[in-house]
Amino acid sequence: MEQTDFSARADELLGALEAVLFAAGDPVSFEKLGEVLNVSESEAKLLSQKLQTEIGADRAFEVYLTADSAGLCTRTEYASYVQSYLEIKRNIPLSKAALEALSVIAYQQPTTKGYVEKVRGVDCSSLFAGLLQRGLIEECGRMDAPGRPILYRTTDAFLRSFGLHSTEELPSLEEHLQTVLQGAEDL
Questions:
Q1: For 22-46, what is the mean pLDDT?
Q2: Which residue of 39, 63, 96, 160 has the fewest C-beta atoms within 10 A of its own C-beta?
Q3: Which domain holds residue 13?
């Protein structure tokens, strides 16, 4: 498909982008948005940034951007209303063990289940199943090693859940360990 003149159709493209993000429900990669809107990936990212600015604080939703995708989400001040309407019960929080495993994955990604088990000292099969089911981690290939173990990484859902736009916003490992150790002292 031939790409169209980006600047001449910016208003139409912004409306189309908003409609696609609304219909998708989940974040959509800039690559896929470019295909759908018939623009380049970089133009799709620029459009997403423009839409984020234009929506402003007077709307009940906002454009959420990550390094490689955009999505629509409800502003936090309206979340309780949406939950009431949908009769969504608050999600069961992650266990300390699941948070431990997720931390190892976040800081060492991509990594294997075997590595997480080595760090934690216990089997993590059920933890991985739960994190995969919640969409907080995903498979991202296989390690070039005997047995070709599956590699895992965090997802955009992980970033949204922890209020991050990229994993670069994670505190340094030293800061993270100090927080964990301080929490252990408070027990």
A1: 93
A2: 96
A3: 7-86
